[in-house]
């Protein structure tokens, strides 16, 4: 491992050691010591894949937050040093420990150290007096462990006679085994806790105390209203600085492996990139920064609302190279003749606008946008006819006649698209009309220099997680099938000589190494490429035979060092994440074979 990567490890390892001491001394009931529940068959699969001890460590790590927050500085708007100074000012009371990432080319990534697990004094007196309590849902507790407050909708139960201002201990109700192999939360909102052993979840929430705070409403108030702050957390088992809405547009909270995935794609200025499953846009904007906002990023997602979110985020970050599209990744490749037009990489079906104030504005903006598109297409067709164009892979340079000046200017096509986007999208999040969501019928084959497929997955690497029982072997296989179908589309969209990066946030080898195996075995023009930086661990080599006879093939010897596997139990203390990078060779024959 390179020296810089070792330094990064040292920085995080020092956070990690402090974070994990003192766990053993906590009194048992009022402690945080969860055991993650899994579906039995899935647990058995993971235990065999990783070995029981390793899987047990992974499982334990998943139930806790990382010991630091990772921040990407928006270098278009700030510098790492300026961001550190501002963050120190914002987090002054908490004496923030902030350091820069030592990995080469990643000094714009900052780590803010957290602390924990802390032993909390819940005020259990020797005379047996018990604390007043608030019982929250699992989702609420996972958010609190990441630094959030307790909001009204997350509260399930509360001790009788809690008044506004009372100090309350906060614990969590996690799913329990129910009938028919299912899982249930056997508690309804509004339950009164008596502090006795007959309370619902009395035994089950032992070791599931996440801190204490001050009730912002009385018990009656908490269950009467639908929203608002219920408990202001003053003592947390894990202290991670809450950075939401802090330095908006200048910094972005993002997991380290996600930033590494953007680097692995290695986007270059002026290129045309597809982010196939882009929402909420974390990696899209990371890629935009690496390209210094020069080129074009098509940010696709199937959810209309999420696509609007990408639009807003791009505007907030000051990135104009991003065009969000609503499209199903399973239908990404446009097979109609429209895609053959050199000027029409994307088979745009229609534009429609969401989240825009005022229908007149919508109409006028829409008309303008159509006009621009129409003008651009005409200009391109004219030049196509005149023979003044040349095509260099996807970086098409065209000679554009400027009507006003009546002179010929040499302009890159990426620059034309960028100008159109700025006109269409407006100046930025706060001033923008809202996110215009363009629908697409698909994109022309081989029309991108690089494609990122950050696939929807089982998300079994995300942390903190207090329950994992919902996923089964069957659901894992469904995820993998979906991912393969998306990959089938992705490989067709990359130009020969281009790059495809596949990533997930799961620890499941079936969605990681097995998908890579499928890709390499199905598309002979793909080969694994080395990644920079490389700070994750090696992939899993071998195969797995399931009791039902199904065999999952993973990597072959020699391939393991070409992928990056981020193990949540390693000293890097990240989420579980996986990255594979493929070089795309000449694919004509293979595509014909696979299509027939
Ligand atoms: C892992 S998240 C992507 C995270 C994103 N790359 C980021 O870094 O911010 C997966 C995304 O895939 C989207 N998705 C799921 N199925 C899809 C499909 N068939 N077509 C397009 N997007 C899909 C989901 O809406 C979700 O936003």
What does it look like?
The chain is α+β, with helices and mostly antiparallel strands. It has four domains: 111 residues, no CATH class; 105 residues, PUA domain (Archaeosine Trna-guanine Transglycosylase, Chain: A, domain 4, Roll); 180 residues, no CATH class; 141 residues, 3-Layer(aba) Sandwich (Rossmann fold). It has 14 helices and 28 strands. Helix 12 links the parallel strand 22 and strand 23. Helix 2 packs across helix 3. 45% of the residues are buried. The protein binds S-adenosylmethionine (SAM). S-adenosylmethionine (SAM) binds next to helix 8. Keywords: Methyltransferase, RNA-binding, S-adenosyl-L-methionine, Transferase. One of its GO terms (biological process) is RNA methylation. This is SAM-dependent MTase RsmB/NOP-type domain-containing protein. Belongs to the class I-like SAM-binding methyltransferase superfamily. RsmB/NOP family.
Give a summary of the structure in a few sentences.
With 596 residues, the chain is α+β, with helices and mostly antiparallel strands. It has four domains: 111 residues, no CATH class; 105 residues, Archaeosine Trna-guanine Transglycosylase, Chain: A, domain 4 (Roll); 180 residues, no CATH class; 141 residues, Rossmann fold (3-Layer(aba) Sandwich).
List the helices and strands and how they pair.
Blueprint: H1 3-20, H2 40-50, H3 52-62, E1 68-73, H4 80-90, E2 98-100, E3 109-113, E4 132-137, H5 138-145, E5 150-151, E6 155-159, E7 167-173, E8 176-177, E9 183-184, E10 191-193, E11 209-215, H6 219-224, E12 229-236, E13 251-253, H7 256-265, E14 272-275, H8 282-290, E15 296-301, H9 304-316, E16 322-326, E17 346-353, H10 359-386, E18 389-390, E19 397-402, E20 407-412, H11 413-425, E21 436-443, E22 448-454, H12 473-493, E23 494-504, H13 513-522, E24 526-528, E25 543-545, E26 551-553, E27 564-566, E28 577-584, H14 588-595
Parallel strand pairs: 4-7, 6-10, 14-15, 14-22, 15-16, 16-21, 22-23
Antiparallel strand pairs: 1-3, 1-13, 2-3, 4-6, 5-12, 7-11, 8-9, 11-12, 17-21, 18-19, 19-20, 23-28, 24-28, 25-26, 27-28
Helix pairs in contact: 2-3, 7-8, 10-11, 12-13
Residues 258, 277-283, 301-303, 306, 328-330, 454, 456 line the site of S-adenosylmethionine (SAM).
């Amino acid at each position: 491992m390179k020296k810089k990567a070792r330094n990064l490890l040292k920085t995080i390892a020092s956070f990690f050691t402090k974070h994990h001491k003192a766990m053993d001394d906590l009194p048992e009931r009022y402690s945080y010591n969860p055991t993650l529940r899994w579906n039995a068959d899935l647990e058995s699969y993971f235990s065999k894949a990783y070995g029981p001890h390793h899987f047990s460590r992974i499982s334990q790590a998943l139930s806790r937050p990382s010991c630091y927050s990772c921040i990407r500085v928006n270098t278009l708007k700030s510098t790492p040093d300026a961001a550190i100074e501002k963050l120190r000012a914002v987090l002054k009371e908490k004496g923030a420990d902030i350091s820069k990432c030592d990995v080469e080319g990643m000094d714009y990534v900052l780590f803010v150290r957290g602390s924990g697990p802390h032993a909390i004094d819940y005020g259990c007196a020797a005379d047996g007096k018990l604390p007043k309590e608030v019982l929250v849902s699992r989702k609420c507790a996972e958010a609190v462990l990441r630094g959030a407050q307790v909001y009204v909708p997350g509260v399930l139960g509360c001790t009788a006679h809690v008044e506004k201002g009372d100090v309350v201990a906060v614990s969590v109700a996690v799913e329990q085994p129910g009938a028919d192999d299912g899982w249930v939360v056997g508690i309804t909102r509004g339950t009164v806790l008596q502090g006795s052993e007959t309370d619902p979840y009395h035994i089950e929430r032992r070791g599931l105390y996440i801190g204490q705070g001050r009730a912002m409403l009385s018990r009656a108030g908490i269950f009467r209203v639908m929203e608002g702050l219920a408990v202001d957390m003053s003592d947390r088992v894990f202290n991670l600085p809450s950075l939401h809405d802090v330095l908006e547009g200048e910094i972005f909270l993002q997991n380290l492996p996600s930033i590494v995935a953007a680097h692995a794609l290695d986007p270059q200025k002026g290129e045309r990139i597809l982010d196939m499953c882009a929402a909420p846009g974390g990696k899209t904007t990371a890629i935009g920064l690496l390209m210094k906002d020069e080129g074009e990023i098509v940010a696709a997602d199937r959810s209309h609302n999420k696509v609007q979110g990408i639009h807003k985020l791009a505007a907030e970050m000051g990135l104009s190279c991003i065009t969000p599209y609503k499209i199903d990744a399973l239908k990404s490749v446009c097979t109609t003749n429209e895609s053959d037009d050199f000027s029409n990489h994307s088979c745009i079906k229609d534009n429609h606008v969401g989240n825009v104030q005022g229908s007149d504005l919508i109409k006028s903006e829409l008309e303008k946008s159509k006009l621009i598109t129409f003008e651009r297409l005409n200009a391109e067709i004219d030049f196509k006819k005149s023979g003044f164009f040349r095509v260099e892979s996807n970086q098409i340079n065209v000679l554009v006649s400027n009507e006003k000046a009546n002179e010929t200017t040499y302009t890159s096509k990426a620059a034309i698209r960028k100008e159109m986007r700025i006109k269409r999208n407006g100046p930025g999040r706060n001033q923008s009309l809202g996110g215009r969501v363009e629908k697409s019928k698909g994109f022309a084959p081989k029309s991108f220099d690089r494609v990122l497929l950050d696939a929807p997955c089982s998300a079994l690497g995300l942390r903190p997680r207090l329950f994992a029982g919902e996923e089964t072997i069957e659901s894992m296989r469904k995820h993998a099938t979906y991912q393969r179908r998306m990959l089938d589309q992705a490989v067709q969209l990359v130009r020969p000589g281009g790059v495809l990066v596949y990533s997930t946030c799961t620890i499941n080898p079936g969605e990681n190494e097995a998908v890579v195996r499928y890709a390499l075995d199905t598309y002979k023009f793909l080969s694994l490429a080395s990644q920079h930086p490389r700070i994750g661990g090696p992939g899993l080599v071998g195969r797995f035979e399931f009791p039902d006879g199904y065999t999952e093939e993973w990597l072959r010897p020699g391939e393991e060092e070409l992928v990056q596997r981020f193990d949540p139990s390693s000293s890097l203390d990240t989420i579980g994440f996986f990255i594979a990078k493929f070089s795309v060779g000449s694919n004509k024959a293979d595509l014909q074979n696979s299509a027939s």
